[in-house]
Amino acid sequence: MARLKALSPDEATGKTKELFTAIQSKLGVVPNMMRTMGNSPALLEGYLNLSGALAHGKLGAKTGELLAMAVSEKNNCDYCLSAHTYIGEKLAHIDAATLTDARNANSHDAKTAAALQFATILTAKQGLVNNADVEAIKAAGFTDGEIGEIVGHVALNVLTNYFNNTAKTDIDFPVVNAYNSVEA
User: Fold this and answer.
1) CA–CA separation, 16 and 14 (whole Å)
2) Which label site among 22, 34, 72, 126 has the fewest CB atoms less than 10 Å from its CB?
3) HSE (CB half, 13 Å, CA atoms) of 132?
4) Model confidence over 61-92: pLDDT tens digits?
5) At a CB cut-off of 8 Å and minimum separation 6, what does 55 contact?
6) Any idea which architecture 60-167 has in CATH?
7) How many Cβ atoms from other residues are within 10 Å of residue 170's Cβ?
8) What is the pTM of this model?
9) Using CA of residue 4, residue 170, residue 57, residue 120, what is the dihedral sign?
10) How distant is the alpha carbon of residue 78 from its chain centre?
11) Taking Cα atoms as reference points, which of 32, 54, 14 lies closest to residue 164?
12) CA–CA dist 79, 175 (Å, integer)
């Protein structure tokens, strides 16, 4: 059962209503995570702004979805695993096996695998990576800007993972559970 209330788009007012209207026009629906974030228009707007900015980055939508899978698995976020599995398959056209591999920070593409491994190292070390970690991602062919984007994607997904794990957001996508899912 959800710990934080998901607002109804019909009942939203002010800035939240404005954001919900924009989300509805873009996605055709306001997902429960965003409806719950709507309790704080500042949080919802910040999430949307960072997500939108990263969507225009050099890494691309597919890599962004794969990074989301790796980080969400590391953080045991069933909501995000469910959402990104759906988005990955239906919108980014990523096959199920690739999405499953990403949950384990694996990819048949060496450069993508390096990005996923760096993201999980970054998550596990809470951002306190060492010189060897950064040199490894550079050796895989990533520029400083692309490394910055990986950090941005990790931060965005840590935000949504922690938010959904705190809120116990009702999953409104086909359910995917973390391998080590825990009931808190």
Assistant:
1) 5
2) 126
3) 1
4) 999 999 999 999 999 999 999 999 999 999 99
5) 61, 64
6) Up-down Bundle (1.20)
7) 14
8) 0.95
9) positive
10) 11
11) 32
12) 8
Domain boundaries, the chain: 14-55, 60-167
Place of tokens 């800007």: 145
CA angle 63, 50, 79 (to 5 degrees): 65
d(CA 161, CA 38): 16
Structure tokens at 46: 């910040």
What counts of helices (H) and strands (E) characterise the chain?
Answer: 9, 0
- Residues 119-157 have pLDDT tens digits of 999 999 999 999 999 999 999 999 999 999 999 999 999
The confidence band for 181, taking pLDDT boundaries of 50, 70 and 90, is confident
